[in-house]
Write a structure and sequence with these properties.
Elements lengths: L1 H36 L3 E5 L5 E2 L2 H9 L4 E13 L2 E10 L5 H7 E4 L8 E5 H7 L10 E6 L13 E12 L3 H6 E5 H8 L5 E2 L1 E4 L5 H12 L3 E5 H4 L1 H39 L1 H9 L4 H37 L16 H29 L7
Parallel strand pairs: 4-9, 6-8
Antiparallel strand pairs: 1-11, 1-12, 2-10, 3-4, 3-7, 3-11, 5-8, 6-9, 7-8
Length: about 375
């Protein structure tokens, strides 16, 4: 019975650490792509969508050798062959890091710094029927014109630009369906902005982002918002954290089921060894001491089962990292990550639930076995 009980704890502990490590791997994999387009710090105005990038701002960043690039972001209607979709147009200047380009480009090439070219997500390209360098089917971008007055045609209310798709990127489903990248000059022309007007200053590849955040905030002042990567993608981080909590709770229930098996096994032992226990009590053993025997046995089963389960889980995680036993696609192995917090979380969870089960077992034993008085 003890072997059956400890086997359940081993399997549940191993399953829990494997699933948590797998989710950590998927989480890091998702955030790795987000980091390609989300800078370490993003500086935006508190009021309005654009601001003037002054020489003082440029000197501040360059004097401190801070890596940065400027961007503009706004919505536009994209139209091709009677297929329409509202997209977010993000204009980037020449400082956008090349390593980020290499990590997200899926087909074709990055846009030229001058010229009417865009890079679109593969989901949007598929839905709208967009091909790279298709000069016969140019893409039309439309944005509203500011101003007042009488309207006689669509040209009076809409400003348009014809562009070609130079490349297709792949980041994640949300960005693939919503964002289009282009050069800064085209974005400024499309949105009617002056040369020095930008939407954000993006700081990337910094070793001490937290320390730099305060320095940048103090310089730009209260009129600007300085957001780190978590704040920029708060919805995504909240979603991933919620999913992680849900997975933890689900597998905690599996541990509870395994400990119920332990509880049942120890109860069977109490029934089976009732005469032996009564003999011990005749020799002077108190009911409290009998309860402690099963209390410590429950803790021992939980501890040994948890340790063996963690070792088994760690071996399987190591084999997945080295041998790619499970594949998402033919070229992409399921990502797993060793994290100390996951091991501590599993150990503390199993031991806490094991402690509760052991207390219940001890209480049951003391109540179910009558105290035999000594003559």
């Amino acid at each position: 019975m003890s072997i059956l009980a400890i086997t359940g704890v081993i399997v549940s502990a191993a399953a829990m650490i494997i699933v948590l490590s797998g989710f950590s791997g998927l989480k890091n994999y998702s955030l790795e792509f987000i980091s390609s387009v989300s800078p370490s710090l993003k500086i935006t105005p508190n009021k309005g969508k654009v601001f003037k990038f002054t020489n003082e701002m440029k000197a501040f960043l360059e004097d401190r050798k801070i890596n940065y690039y400027n961007s503009i972001e706004d919505k536009a209607l994209m139209s091709i062959n009677n297929n329409n979709r509202i997209m977010i147009i993000r204009g980037l200047d020449d400082r956008f890091p090349k390593r980020n380009i290499d990590s997200i480009i899926y087909q074709g090439s990055w846009f030229e710094s001058s010229g009417n070219e865009i890079v679109i997500g593969w989901s949007s390209a598929y839905d709208l029927g967009i091909s790279t360098q298709d000069g016969l089917n140019p893409i039309n971008l439309y944005v509203p014109k500011p101003g007042k007055g009488q309207v006689f045609s669509e040209k009076d209310i809409l400003k348009s630009e014809k562009v070609l798709a130079s490349g297709i990127f792949s980041i994640n489903e949300e960005l693939n369906n919503s964002i289009v990248f282009t050069n800064m000059a085209l974005a400024q022309e499309l949105f009617g902005l002056a040369e020095q007007e930008i939407g954000a200053v993006n700081i990337f590849n910094t070793e001490d982002a937290k320390g730099l955040e305060k320095i940048v905030s103090d310089f730009f002042g209260p009129g600007f918002n300085v957001a780190n990567r978590v704040q920029q993608n708060s919805t995504l981080y909240k979603m991933l954290n919620t999913e992680q909590v849900a997975i933890y709770l689900i597998f905690s229930l599996i541990v509870v089921v395994a400990l119920f098996n332990m509880f049942g096994a120890l109860m069977m032992m109490v029934i089976e060894k009732r005469k032996n226990l009564q003999a011990l009590m005749v020799m002077g053993l108190a009911k409290k001491s009998v309860g402690k025997i099963f209390f410590y046995q429950g803790l021992l089963i939980s501890f040994v089962g948890c340790i063996i389960g963690l070792v088994v889980g760690s071996v399987l995680i190591f084999l997945q990292q080295k041998l790619s036993l499970f594949m998402i696609t033919s070229s992409l192995a399921y990502p797993v990550v060793f994290e100390l917090k996951n091991f501590l979380l599993v150990f503390l969870t199993v031991m806490a639930l094991g402690l509760i089960a052991s207390v219940i077992i001890s209480y049951y034993v003391k109540k179910s076995i009558p105290q035999i008085s000594q003559q």
